[in-house]
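Below is a concrete protein record.
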Amino acid sequence: MSALVSGCFEAPDWRIDWDAACATFPILASLDSCPQDPRHHAEGDVGVHTRMVLAALVALPAFRALDREAREEVYAAALLHDIGKPGCTRHESDGTITSRGHSRRGAILARRLLWERGCEPVRRERVVALIRWHQTPFHLLTRADARPLALAISWTTRADHLAVLAAADARGRIAADGGALIESVALFAEYCADLGCLDRPYPFPSARARVAYFRDPTRDPDYAPFGDGRARVTLLSGLPGAGKDRSIAEHGGEQPVVGLDAIRAALRVEPTEPQGAVIAHARELAREHLRAGRSFIWNGTNLSRTQRAQTLDLCHAYDAVVEIVYVEAAHRDLWRRNAARSRAVPEAVITRLLSRWEVPDATEAACVRRVWDN
């Protein structure tokens, strides 16, 4: 990550090199042609806003007080925080301009860009999480699910670092509600501090209590569920060629495997064809193991939260404890490994998977193990 931002904001002048940033990330050029609703962004397009956010960020005492690593990550998040807007911006029939969903899309885009640059995965995921949540401090306290959102943030990023980013985002615009946004960010930080999760993850009594709460936020987060579950399910996640099969060979032991590639081969379904029959067959095999209380491995890409949730719901319905094992290969290796497979996944399929690539986090399962093969 140092190569991304080195020399851009160091004391004493805290200079921002926008041209260098655009050379590193050509996608930033598209921000200058992306309009915004003047009610919230009278300053102009997304490019203007992003440059104003960066200027506001490096002027914040709270930003300058961060250690170098944290400054680099928050700066990178500010630089990329709105790259999802060009793909989400819509002109509505009432004349307004909206960009719903741009935080999630921007997080996915940023993940791919930083992965392709070879950025260290743990730091990359901290940047991505900041982008994913960057709007949340503006409205968290008006939401009925404020507490579960705050606790989820604490398990995916630092809420205090998010507050710094959001404060810069609020200041880097011309809007009638700019002062209210700044106040909302301060209240967000106070709220997280009161919950005990401003600079650390919320202290659940156990891993099972954590996942139980995020599955049902109406329960008490400090209540620890009884029992150890009827079965253990290992859910593999990762792009084709990342090394999931090797992980099973090295660590799977004698556990049965529900493998989507094997099912596709048996049913003679190509990766480019509809996968409904493959998924249905896999779910029925999983049910057989779950009904028997038998531990097993589910081997598939499982790249989006929505896709994983379907399998997680099935496992939890049978009181199984799930471990997600996420496997990742470096960009330089992934395409080579996939090409060497006996049944290589078409490039178009991998490209489609990258468009919904969300790395598993601790809100999804009792144990999330990330294997970075970089």
Observations:
- The beta strands are 90-91, 97-98, 231-237, 257-259, 296-299, 320-329, 367-373.
- The first strand starts at residue 90 and ends at 91.
- Residues 178-195 form the longest helix (18 residues).
- The radius of gyration is 22 Å.
